[in-house]
Amino acid sequence: MAPERTLSIIKPDATRRNLTGEILSRFEKAGLRVVAQKRLLLSRPQAEAFYAVHRQRPFFAGLVNFMTSGPVVIQVLEGEGAISKNREVMGATDPQKAAPGTIRRDFAENIEANSVHGSDGPDTAAEEIRFFFSTMEITG
Ligand code: ATP
Ligand code: MG
């Protein structure tokens, strides 16, 4: 099977608490490789566009405020079954429901400030990678 790629974001609650390295280490220990990366402060339009699928949800405004509240670190992760492997390492959306040893169980503050984002399928992975990275920025 060819290696797969997924988009990962270390969210503002985690960058604020200086957890970037610890979280990246979880990915690497799981066999996921960082093949592209950038640190930036999302603009409101960028955060709204990225989470457009949740526009009608009651938590949308809070989510956009949170995602623009500090820097994020965005990476493309590559590996066998990268999309599902990353979701496993991340744990459930709500840290109280996340399995022991997952990033969200160990680091998330709450269901909103939950430390990481990961693409949820092949179509969203391709779309989200294109949203943040050009082909030239991905080194394999
Ligand atoms: P992500 O897309 O960030 O990887 P996810 O796929 O586990 O997370 P989604 O349902 O796509 O969860 O929700 C996107 C994000 O919106 C969550 O990660 C979280 O930050 C926020 N969120 C989801 N549900 C709630 C909620 N009930 N209250 C507040 N924020 C929420
Ligand atoms: Mg999601």
Q: What's the overall geometry?
A: globular
End-to-end distance, in Å? 16 Å
Rg (C-alpha, Å): 14 Å
- How big a fraction of the residues is strand? 15-25%
Total beta strand runs: 4
Count of runs of 4 or more consecutive helical residues = 7
Mean pLDDT: 97
Ligand catalogue: adenosine-5'-triphosphate, magnesium ion
Q: Percentage of helical residues? A: 25-40%
Strand order, largest beta sheet: 2-3-1-4
Poorly predicted residue ranges: none
What keyword list fits this structure?
binds magnesium ion; globular; 19% strand; 4-stranded antiparallel β-sheet; alpha+beta; 7 helices; 140 residues; binds adenosine-5'-triphosphate
Task: Summarize the structure in words.
The protein starts with a strand and ends in an 8-residue tail after the last helix. It has a 4-stranded antiparallel sheet with strand order 2-3-1-4. The protein contains 7 helices and 4 strands. The mean pLDDT is 97. The radius of gyration is 14 Å and the shape is globular. The protein is of the alpha+beta class and 140 residues long. The protein has helices at residues 12-16, 20-29, 44-50, 60-67, 82-90, 103-107, 122-132; strands at residues 4-10, 33-40, 72-79, 116-118. Helices cover 39% and strands 19% of the residues. Adenosine-5'-triphosphate binds at residues 54, 59, 62-63, 93, 111-112, 114, 117-118, 120.
